[in-house]
Design a protein that fits this description.
Blueprint lengths: L1 H22 L4 E5 L2 E6 L5 E9 L12 H11 L7 H10 L3 E6 L3 E9 L3 H13 L5 H19 L2 H13 L13 H6 L2 H11 L5 E6 L4 H12 L21 E6 L5 E7 L8 H23 L7 E5 L5 E8 L2 H18 L3 H18 L3 H15 L4 H10 L3 H11 L4 E6 L6 H5 L14
Helix pairs in contact: 1-12, 2-5, 2-8, 10-11, 10-12, 10-15
Length: 446
């Protein structure tokens, strides 16, 4: 019965996105004043607009990490030259609209979401926020203190701390070592004037991408976007750079912490977005997640929530993560598992199952206007192809078992390990040596 129910659920979820896309009009793109504008008619009464500022951590030096995040928050929290913060918020509330901005590793997003009947009103507020932001000093100090409070909370979170440590080790001296939210020390010193000047340097047409999911007349939309972009300078030509990570040897660094368990994350290489290896690696890492979970938790009880994942940004990388009281046993099992997959490969059944699950989850997650706009934006910025949001099913169908095994062997190699916990519990050599570490007798063999 459970087996039948599982297939009914998968069928229902799989059909839903197909039905959803069928209700939508044909997507199209326009180039207006040098800015690519991607439009998906939604077939519903909700409008989602996203203005993307490309670059992310490439836009600022490490000494100013956090400045882009604050600048995007200030657009709605500090008012505009037309409306102070309260007046601006009141107008948004009257329309029951959402508007906010945030930044990630590869790009920043400033978005609005409203009912179609309120689009005229909200669009004006939206464009005002970007073109005539006030950066009010008093309000800026408030949002800065809020940002510091969040950073302080994050730094006390062991999971957050191990992720930051691993990234700083792997990408030392590179853009991906930066934290888009910054640090307490850096953010505390930023001023409204400095942040405003920074925003003005990145808010230009050469940095922008606009994504709209909504049922808006094409001519009306074109006129609105053209009027909006006419107020924005062209700026210098900008193309986000792509980098690869390929450590030359295994390495490990630790921070001594008095935790009940030990936190470990390893980072290794991964394929570039837009390459033939990319889709195959997505599926390979998802299957490897399942195998890793079974070996580490189910068979050996070494961790409650072991994980592996693929971060497929402009600097792509793969991660292996665990919290465990026995880090030496863990690395033996993990290294042995990697070796086994490389020698024996994955199975056809695993590939077929993961294709179904991945495609279903991807389309299911794109069912709202907001999520679909996010998918279109990320595929355009990261993969250089917004239409990939619609072709993912066919793209994944093309991945073969040979592709899966080839990319795992190609990219899962030397690993940069970060460790936070009791240094007496870990033998560093077991993580850094080239050969497989010796198997303790009490560990169950694979």
């Amino acid at each position: 019965m459970k087996h039948i129910l599982k297939h009914i659920i998968l069928l229902t979820v799989s059909v839903a996105p197909v039905y959803l896309f069928a209700q939508m009009g044909e997507p199209y793109e326009m180039n207006i004043n040098g800015v690519n504008v991607i439009v998906q008619p939604s077939g519903n009464e909700i409008v989602e607009v996203r203005t993307i500022i490309k670059g992310g951590v490439q836009n600022y030096p490490a000494s100013k990490a956090g400045i882009e995040s604050l600048s995007l928050t200030a657009l709605t929290e500090c008012g505009t030259l037309k409306d102070d913060k309260n007046a601006f918020k009141n107008k948004l509330d009257k329309a029951s609209a959402q508007m906010n901005g945030y930044t990630e590793m590869d790009y920043a997003t400033f978005r609005m979401n409203c009912i179609k009947s309120d689009f005229e009103t909200v669009w004006q507020l939206y464009t005002d926020a970007m073109t005539i932001p006030k950066f009010d000093t008093k309000e800026f100090e408030r949002i800065k203190q809020d940002a510091v409070t969040v950073l302080r909370a994050n730094e006390s979170n062991p999971d957050y701390a191990i992720r930051r440590m691993a990234q700083q080790l792997a990408f030392a001296g590179k853009d991906y070592a930066k934290n888009p939210q910054g640090t307490i020390e850096i953010v505390s010193k930023l001023t409204s004037e400095e942040t405003k000047k920074y925003y003005q340097t990145i808010f230009n047409r050469n940095h922008l991408l606009i994504v709209i999911v909504g049922e808006i007349d094409k001519n009306d939309l074109q006129q609105k976007v053209q009027s909006f972009l006419a107020k924005i300078p062209a700026g210098k030509p900008f193309t986000p750079k792509k980098e690869s990570y390929a450590p030359s040897a295994n390495s490990m660094k630790y921070e001594e912490k008095e935790f009940a368990t030990n936190y470990i994350q390893g980072i290794t290489s991964a394929p570039q977005p837009g390459t033939p290896d990319y889709d195959a690696f997505i599926l390979a890492m998802r299957i490897f997640y399942n195998r890793h979970f079974v070996e580490i938790r189910s068979k050996n009880g070494l961790s409650y929530a072991p994980a592996t994942w693929f971060s497929g940004g402009l600097t792509p990388y793969a991660s292996i993560y665990v919290t465990t009281t026995d880090p030496n046993k863990y690395i033996v099992i993990a290294r042995q598992l990697i070796d086994k997959v490389k020698k024996e490969g994955f199975k056809e059944e695993e590939l077929n199952n993961i294709k179904t699950v991945y495609v279903t989850q991807t389309y299911y997650q794109q069912e709202t206007n907001s999520a679909l706009a996010g998918a279109l934006a990320s595929n355009e910025v990261i993969n250089g192809n917004w239409r990939r949001a619609y072709t993912i099913k066919d793209d994944m169908k093309k991945v073969t078992l040979s592709d899966l095994n080839r990319v795992f062997n190609k990219y899962i190699g030397n690993i940069t390990w970060a460790y936070r916990g009791d240094p007496k519990k870990v033998e560093t050599k077991m993580y850094t040596q080239k050969e497989l570490p010796q198997m303790p007798q009490e560990i169950k063999p694979l």
